[in-house]
């Protein structure tokens, strides 16, 4: 296997370090970083070889149970990259950064978001969870601050008082969510990655990310479900 045999250069190491310190990196930034690392270390650079470059890094990360993963933003469909620790669950991954009560609030917020119809939870509903926390009680003012930190650390995204899972959270916790929310978590029928904000076919129940819906139906004469061919009743974004 050529990729497995490929040498991990200083360019690869530099790229990996920046990705790890960023938490998550948008696709265009990753491409610029790829070029910068190659040129700085005077190794061969090809603009269309980012995936191969990352595959080489991943082959060396494999024994460490780590991987650079690519995911799409549910807002606009743009690619993002994050380093994922495959040996850890969501709880242990976040445990070093947050207290037990903060983690409990995060898990309950995640429940609200994933079990909702549109992939969002209002700040009111989240703050009402403070009365149900088992670890210890938390004041609503404290909870507001904790939510702010979750947004800053890119585990949650917030828009007009509505919270959803950040792209970083979806990339890092995809397996955790799929196995812990088996009845409700679904993959997008188009890009096959986890879909939190999605539209669902009323006939057969498949889901699609909003950017995937937009892209898929742009090429169709009339909106029909890609699986069961029934009329797609949701409004095309």
TrEMBL record:
Listed InterPro entries: Nse1 (IPR011513), Nse1_RING_C4HC3-type (IPR014857), WH-like_DNA-bd_sf (IPR036388), Znf_RING (IPR001841), Znf_RING/FYVE/PHD (IPR013083)
Known catalytic reactions: S-ubiquitinyl-[E2 ubiquitin-conjugating enzyme]-L-cysteine + [acceptor protein]-L-lysine = [E2 ubiquitin-conjugating enzyme]-L-cysteine + N(6)-ubiquitinyl-[acceptor protein]-L-lysine
Gene label: Nsmce1
Protein name (record): Non-structural maintenance of chromosomes element 1 homolog
Family: Belongs to the NSE1 family.
Protein function: RING-type zinc finger-containing E3 ubiquitin ligase that assembles with melanoma antigen protein (MAGE) to catalyze the direct transfer of ubiquitin from E2 ubiquitin-conjugating enzyme to a specific substrate. Involved in maintenance of genome integrity, DNA damage response and DNA repair.
Domain RING-type, chain residue ranges per copy: 188-229
EC numbers: 2.3.2.27
Keyword presence, RNA-binding: no
Major enzyme class: transferase
Alphabetical keyword list: Chromosome, DNA damage, DNA recombination, DNA repair, Metal-binding, Nucleus, Telomere, Transferase, Ubl conjugation pathway, Zinc, Zinc-finger
Organism, scientific name: Dicrurus megarhynchus
Gene3D superfamilies (alphabetical): 3.90.1150.220, Winged helix-like DNA-binding domain superfamily/Winged helix DNA-binding domain, Zinc/RING finger domain, C3HC4 (zinc finger)
Main location group: nucleus
Keyword Protein transport: no
CC annotations in GO: chromosome, telomeric region; nucleus; Smc5-Smc6 complex
GO biological process, one term: double-strand break repair via homologous recombination
Domain of life where this protein originates: Eukaryota
Compartments where located: Chromosome, Telomere; Nucleus
GO molecular function: ubiquitin protein ligase activity; zinc ion binding
Quaternary structure and partners: Component of the Smc5-Smc6 complex.
């Amino acid at each position: 296997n050529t990729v497995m045999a490929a040498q991990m250069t200083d360019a690869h190491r530099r790229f990996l370090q920046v990705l790890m310190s960023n938490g998550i990196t948008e696709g265009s930034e990753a491409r610029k970083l790829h070029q910068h690392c190659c040129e700085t270390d005077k190794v061969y650079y090809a603009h269309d070889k980012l995936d191969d470059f990352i595959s080489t890094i991943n082959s060396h990360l494999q024994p460490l149970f780590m991987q650079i993963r690519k995911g799409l933003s549910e807002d606009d469909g743009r690619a993002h990259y994050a380093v994922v620790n495959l040996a850890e669950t969501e709880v242990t991954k976040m445990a070093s950064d947050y207290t037990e009560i903060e983690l409990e609030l995060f898990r309950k917020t995640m429940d609200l978001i994933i079990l909702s119809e549109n992939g969002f939870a209002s700040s009111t509903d989240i703050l009402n969870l403070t009365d149900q926390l088992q670890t210890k009680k938390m004041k609503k003012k404290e909870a507001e601050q904790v939510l702010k930190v979750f947004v800053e650390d890119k585990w949650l995204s917030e828009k007009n008082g509505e919270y959803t899972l950040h792209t970083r959270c979806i990339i890092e916790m995809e397996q955790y969510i799929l196995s812990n929310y088996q009845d409700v978590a679904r993959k997008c029928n188009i890009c096959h990655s986890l879909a939190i904000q999605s539209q669902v076919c009323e006939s057969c129940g498949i889901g699609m990310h909003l950017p995937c819906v937009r892209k898929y139906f742009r090429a169709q004469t009339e909106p029909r479900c890609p699986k069961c061919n029934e009329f797609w009743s949701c409004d095309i974004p």
